[in-house]
Prior knowledge:
There is one protein chain. This protein is of the alpha+beta class. It is built from 22 helices and 16 strands. Strands 2, 3, 4, 6 and 9 form a 5-stranded antiparallel sheet that branches. Strands 12-13-14-15-16 form a 5-stranded antiparallel sheet. A hairpin with a 5-residue loop joins strand 14 and strand 15 (320-326). It is elongated.
Amino acid sequence: MVLHYKVTVYTSNRVCATTLNSVHIKLVGTDGESDRTWLNSLVIFRGSVTTYTVCCSKSLGKLILIELDKRHRHFVPDGSWFPDKVEVKSPEEDVYTFPIHCWISDKATHRYREGKALRIFDESNSLGEYARHLELSQRKANFRWNEKSPGVPNCIEADGPCTLPHEVRFSFTKDIEFKSTIGAAIIELELKGLECKKKNWKSFDKMKHVFCNKHTPLSDYVQQNWKEDWLFAYQFLNGVHPTLIQRCKTLPENFPVTDAMVSKLFISGGSNLSNELKQGNIYLCDYKNLDGVPAHITEQIHHYLTAPLVLFHKRPNNKLMPIAIQLNQIPAKKNPIFLPTDSPYDWLTAKIFVKSADFSEHQLNAHLLRTHLLAEVFAVSLLRKLPMVHPLYKLLIPHTRYTLHINELARKELIGPTGIFTRFAASGGKALMMILARSLSSITYRSLCIPDDIADRDLQDVPNFYYRDDGLKLWNLIYTFVQGVVQHYYKNDDEVQLDPELQTWICNIFEHGFLSKKETGIPQSFTTVSELIKFATMVIFTCSCQHAAVNNGQYDYGAWMPNSPMTLQRPPPTKKGTTSEATILQTLPPVNFTVQGLTAVWLLSRQSSDFVPLGHYPEDHFTEKIPRQLQKDFKDKLDDLSKQINMRNKGLEIPYTYLDPKSIENSVAI
Ligand code: FE2
């Protein structure tokens, strides 16, 4: 008797997914396995759905996995193949789905499990356990930790993006778009001869013409209003670095602002500094993380980096305004406290030094470390420790897309020995590693969870704080979604404690991401279902929302260089009354530095055409009804939130769009 298994192969529609290789399949079930069978096609086209037959002499029982391999045919080009999934209909009319969603580029045999999510103790067959073990051994070999940089999170062992396993690299489309965007920007600069111009800017006016077409409504707005105190303050709530400001109830000892300095700024009449502090109307940005960091040394210019303290006052009209700036941490005669009542150039110079320090703190701590490098840790741990069939793998893998590739690119093109950051930023080179290590030392689990972070910074009731408003709503939506999925698979705390793969995964993150620092508060193991839910929520939030918040506005706020200079080439003023427009122009970075920086932020703010928004899961790793319904509910709620944010933004002079779910990517991919 011959039994027929109907095998339907779904090939991805992405560019280059077609294969001319001969593909073979083997079905493996609880009662036996089929022969390795050729899928009878000379070409498997991208986007195709084709059904084949696999014949067996007896029933294979319940199907556990499939094996796929492809072989190069003579006289036709070799190449990779990208199958999305395989469905198998058994002679008993049972339908099994095997999610794949990755490139097959070699001639090895690849195993894919049936789509139902299984924890290790759900495996009823030793074959399943063996497949898990085999898969993780392979992954450990492919995704190795690089532990060479002391004090910073470990990263993937690779020598550039091209050496990464195919499955985690950019798609052909993304790769081409990325290269053409940067190519177009460089050509424009070369045509204008700006890239090699080492001179200082002669006027602010000349800076307006770096790029002809690369403007956003907000970048134009910033260019026109950058000197305004309210826009300076606004950016600490709703710009690209909303994670530093905190309410200040007691002045730091090293920031001796007196009532005499600032009381005339309190337009509420009769108020004074201690009153305003008590009432919660005073806010602080403290760049102590940069204190004592020696600015990078390069041949081209002398770099200066300061560690300012900035005090803000919330006016009765709910606008935040800067009221005092001290450019270094130790109070001294030569480190004056600048005030809005000083000469306009002194005050503007002080604000420019703050914005330059903010560039370094934002890019290295808030952006690189707290999103890119942590997302990489989450990705590598996931790949090394959880098999594809594990429910947490299915939940989190879409939030790791392209992260290893973009980080390898950043290590090469931005912070590598010849990278843009290394060559042009005050915090490049050794300063960069020092800032990263300090930032990791002070990172806490609470600061990665927005509800805790907002509470710890005491910012629950600051008006017009859209990063907080949208961020908390997003956190809650992600939490509800994750809760649904996790509680579907883990019915009680014991099941969490008894899942060795899950425990090894969190251990791996603690060890390689947070260098086993207990004081971070990062869990070293999971004891309850709710701990697991919170941690997975944090992972998704960090990889999607938090990255969008600190990444997507880089060009809006950075295109006008004086608003965000990557370095400064004169020391901070040591007494008042020594500044002018000329000293400011001598302090700001020269032309070639400016245009290199702008090219980078232009590229890093671009959305690729294969962008996947938060909550969209085009790769159906989950095949079961409940998690798929939870995904749909999540997406629907995100759509509603997007509408609310759009409505809110219509009434704002500066719309806050970075946490609109439609513009948040599922993963750190840029
Ligand atoms: Fe980024």
